[in-house]
Write a structure and sequence with these properties.
This protein is an alpha+beta fold.
Length: about 550
């Protein structure tokens, strides 16, 4: 065997070793990713499944009633264990969870009448129903009759609560907006150059119209207060584990459940109900309970606005650099700058967005178009439009690079054939090159969407909030309110997991929200990938 053959075989063995090493690293990364997704899915989906309510009778005669969360070994002990129990009743005990030493537990049981109340405030309540009252009248007494009576009345109270919310956000909200518009119109009179007589006449008209709306507001407010009092008519008397009783207003109860008496089908129905509430309702209790629909809506809307902005700018920049700009040191310098821009920390983009978009552009818009509202800003503060533009700047280098690669992959003879047939440079670019490079463009857009959906740091500066009172889209003209602040799934995870006053209670919600964020990003990416594949099949000449 010659020296060249030995060297060639060594090279082949070394190449095979590196190939196996790369394959093993890829397999390890896939396994770690799948394990992480499985962890999020198990904990996230398990958050909605009803857990049994356990009664722990202690050796000292006291009792604990709640859901068993976990059991662990006591640090520093010789094999002794303790159990974490979600006892709820925060308005009674002041804490949602307690640790119980297993050595102090005399017995455990699953009482059939153990009842869980999911409430608008103060979290869950665990106990046994005693009575249902309407004022001094006892409507039902005993666990089973009370649960049946509550099952008949509670849907009505939930419907009334929804009607009250619709009244607040609908008619009362409309009147408030009209009053605010009239107030701003009155302030604008001082800015307009009017004669004294015209100024007085228009101010009198505004005051007269404002008085009409104020009277309408007072009428609606009285109606609202009366309906709220009716909503609090029934009181549910609950017995706690220590034998005491607690009155719970039925109108503040979201759901009444007896988990120990539920069958499989009933548990599945409750599971589906909780999942639907999670994705369709507003948050409550400092975002630790209820739904996250505003965060879903804000995330998806922000990504769509970003896509509509970043796609044309990124594609146009790449087209100029690849198809029109004379290749030379300046273009190479621009490409280096674009590549370096992709590595700038995202918080830097947030600071830039705050200074340029919010303070400069937004402040200028307020001075020109909304001077009567100053010093309260309209566009000169964080909003979904500024957040979208900031993330567009953050992700535009990704689109430029992917688009350039897509344009470079279009064979040169395709361009030359189009030009030879008499097409202009623009017609060749628009009708031949761009369609063939569309899969590469879609790849860049997919990467931009995925990165933008998970960014949190810059959004905290330019418009994202813990709780947004209204959505950026509603039924009020102009229907799309780009100046409004918004909620975001990424920030919701951070806020619930690290800023919540009740971190232990919110921990399962973190996994559920993280799972939903993964599903939202995956859904948007799959839609873009399907579109890319259709374009790739249509323009089969593109190897992208």
């Amino acid at each position: 065997m010659t020296a060249d053959e030995k060297r060639r075989r060594r090279t082949e063995r070394l190449g095979q070793a590196f190939t196996w090493l790369c394959g093993g690293a890829l397999a390890l990364n896939l396994l770690l990713t799948m394990a992480l997704l499985a962890l999020i899915a198990v904990n996230g989906l398990g958050y909605f499944w009803p857990k049994k309510i356990t009664l722990l009778t202690m050796t000292d005669g006291s009792a604990r009633l709640g859901e068993i969360q976990e059991t662990e070994e006591i640090p520093g002990s010789d094999g002794a264990t303790r159990t974490r129990v979600k006892v709820g009743n925060r308005d009674v005990t002041g804490a949602d969870f307690v640790w119980v030493d297993d050595a102090d537990v005399r017995s455990r049981s699953l009482p059939a009448d153990a009842t869980l109340l999911e409430r608008l405030e103060w979290g869950n309540f665990y106990g046994a129903p005693v009575e249902l009252r309407r004022g001094d009248e006892v409507l039902a007494s005993g666990p089973e009759p009370v649960v049946r009576a509550v099952g008949e009345i509670l849907p009505q109270r939930i419907a009334e609560r929804a009607a009250l919310q619709a009244l607040e956000r609908g008619q009362i909200g409309d009147v408030n907006r009209e009053i605010e518009q009239l107030r701003l119109a009155d302030r604008r009179l001082d800015l307009d150059r009017l004669t004294e007589a015209e100024h007085a006449r228009r101010r009198a008209e505004i005051q007269q119209e404002m008085e009409v709306h104020r009277q309408e507001y007072e009428r609606l407010a009285e109606q609202l207060f009366a309906r709220r009092e009716a909503l609090a008519a029934e009181t549910l008397v609950m017995r706690t584990a220590d034998g005491g009783t607690r009155d719970v207003v039925l109108g503040e109860v979201v759901r009444v459940v007896q988990p120990n008496a539920l069958g499989v089908l009933d548990s599945l129905g409750l599971y589906a109900s909780r999942v639907w509430e999670f994705v369709s309702d507003d948050p409550r209790e400092s975002n630790t309970e209820g739904g996250i629909f505003p965060a879903i809506f804000g995330t998806v809307m922000m990504v769509f606005i970003l896509s509509f902005v970043v796609a044309p700018f990124g594609v146009l920049a790449a087209l100029y650099l690849r198809e029109y700009a004379p290749q030379g040191p300046l273009v190479r310098l621009v490409r280096i700058a674009v590549n370096n821009l992709a590595g700038v920390p995202s918080i830097v983009f947030g600071v830039f967005g705050l200074g340029f978009f919010v303070y400069l552009i937004g402040g200028t818009i307020d001075q020109v178009f909304f001077p009567e509202a100053l010093p309260a800003p309209t566009f000169g503060t964080g909003g979904i439009v500024w957040a979208s533009l900031t993330l567009a700047l953050l992700t535009v280098p990704v689109v430029i690079v992917a688009t350039e690669e897509g344009l470079a992959s279009v064979p040169r003879n395709v361009r030359e054939g189009s030009l030879a047939l008499g097409a202009t440079k623009f017609e060749t670019t628009w009708r031949v090159v761009l369609p063939a490079a569309a899969p590469g463009i879609m790849t860049g857009l997919i990467l931009a969407m995925a990165r933008a959906a998970g960014e949190v740091a810059p959004l905290m500066i330019v418009g994202m909030v813990k709780l947004a009172p209204t959505l950026p889209i509603d039924g009020q003209f102009p229907f799309v309110h780009l100046e409004r602040k918004f909620m975001h799934l990424g920030f919701h995870i951070y806020d619930v997991g690290f800023q919540s006053p009740n971190v232990e209670a919110a921990q399962p919600l973190v996994f559920a929200t993280a799972l939903l964020l993964v599903l939202v990003v995956t859904t948007m990416n799959l839609a873009a990938i399907l579109l890319r594949n259709r374009l790739r099949a249509k323009y089969a000449t593109s190897p992208v």
